[in-house]
Amino acid sequence: MTTPKIRPPPTGHASWLDYAVDTMDTRSIEIESLFDDVENAPTREAMRHSARAELDALRQATATIRSDPGDAVVTVKG
Predict the structure, then answer these.
(1) In order along the chain (78 residues), what is the average pLDDT of each group of 10 residues?
(2) What residues have CB less than 8 Å from 19, skipping those under 6 apart?
(3) What is the pTM of this model?
């Protein structure tokens, strides 16, 4: 079995992870929590913002580990 070729991300996106965050399905998550705690339910924009913040934190942690390989503990704050 051969490994599939890694394709470049779609135009306008730096990576497939950026594309995934930018196009993530927030509608189904919003509908799922529609009848839960409505006052504290996150907006679709807040969901995307949180996903982008997590991806940015992972990138920052990766940069830190690359510059100091002895620091291999990664904490993502949310």
Answers:
(1) 89 94 89 74 89 93 72 55
(2) 9, 10, 13
(3) 0.67
Residue 70 CB neighbours (<10 A): 6
Tokens 């070729």 sit on residue: 5
Phi and psi angles of residue 56, each rounded to the nearest 5 degrees, phi first: -60, -40
Q: Which two structure tokens, joined as six digits, stand for 29?
A: 């998550």
SS (H, E, C) the chain: CCCCCCCCCCCCCCCHHHHHHHCCCCHHHHHHCCCCCHHHCCCHHHHHHHHHHHHHHHHHHHHHHHHCCCCCCCCCCC
Record the tokens describing residue 7, joined without a space: 């394709």
| Number of other CB atoms surrounding residue 21 within 10 Å | 20
Residue type at position 63: A
Structure tokens, 1:
């079995």
